[in-house]
Amino acid sequence: MFTPPMARLRLRTPAMFTMVVAATTLGLAASGTAHATADLARKRACLACHQVDKARAGPAFIDVATRYRNDRQAEARLVNKVLKGGGGAWQMPMGPMPAQSQVSEPEARQLVKWILAQRP
Ligand code: HEC
User: Fold this and answer.
1) Test site for ligand 1: of 44, 47, 50, most ligand atoms within 8 A of the Cβ
2) First to last CA, the chain
3) Exposure class string for 61-79: b at 16+ Cβ within 10 A, else e
4) For residue 57, is pLDDT > 70?
5) 15: pLDDT strictly greater than 60
6) Which residue has its alpha carbon closest to ligand 1 atom 24?
7) For the chain, what is the mean pLDDT?
8) Average of pLDDT values for 85-92?
9) Is residue 80 within a helix (H) or strand (E), and if so which, with residue range?
10) Which of 84, 97, 109, 110 has most ligand 1 atoms within 8 Å of CB, for mutation?
């Protein structure tokens, strides 16, 4: 069917508007999630040993993200390590990280995604 150019324009404009609104909402949702995850890291006591930008008892989360930047298996491995504990990667004076049994698997995954997304 032939659509007059003006009709097409009128159709296209609200669609564009919707896309811009959707993109903006997505952006806000993403930063909202980062904020919520930082909160979760505090509530689950990750921040008792870790800081985002400084090594404490555990490595800085920015350093963790930098080390595994090109490692596509890192997420699964780190989720497992958070849940079960372990050492050997950072040689911190305190030794290995204890198992973080206060977090569920989905929480561990959410936290690890957030950690790996940190940028200096
Ligand atoms: C009691 C202190 C302590 C707590 C609490 C702690 N960590 Fe750790 N974390 C460590 C230490 C020490 C290491 C270094 C382990 C190593 O050398 O492999 C580490 C390493 C890590 C790593 C990098 C592991 C690797 O193989 O590179 C991640 C990711 C991590 N911690 C996430 C978390 C999360 C998420 C929490 C909260 C649920 C948490 N940590 C709570 C001490 C802690």
Assistant:
1) 50
2) 54
3) bbbbbeebeeeeebeeebb
4) yes
5) yes
6) 78
7) 89
8) 98
9) helix 74-84
10) 97
Q: Ligand 1 — pocket residues by CB below 6 A?
A: 44-46, 48-50, 57-59, 64, 78, 81-82, 86-92, 94, 96-98, 100, 103, 111-112, 115
Q: Tokens 């919707």, residue? A: 18
Atom of ligand 1 nearest to the CA of 90: 17
Q: How confident is the model at residue 72 (pLDDT cuts 50, 70, 90)?
A: very high
Q: What is the pLDDT of residue 20?
A: 61
The answer, as to whether pTM is greater than 0.85, is no
Q: How far is residue 92's CA from residue 38's CA, in Å, rounded to a whole number?
A: 23
| Rounded Cα distance, 115 and 91, in Å | 19
Q: What three-state secondary structure class fits 115?
A: helix
Question: Quick one: pLDDT at residue 32?
Answer: 83
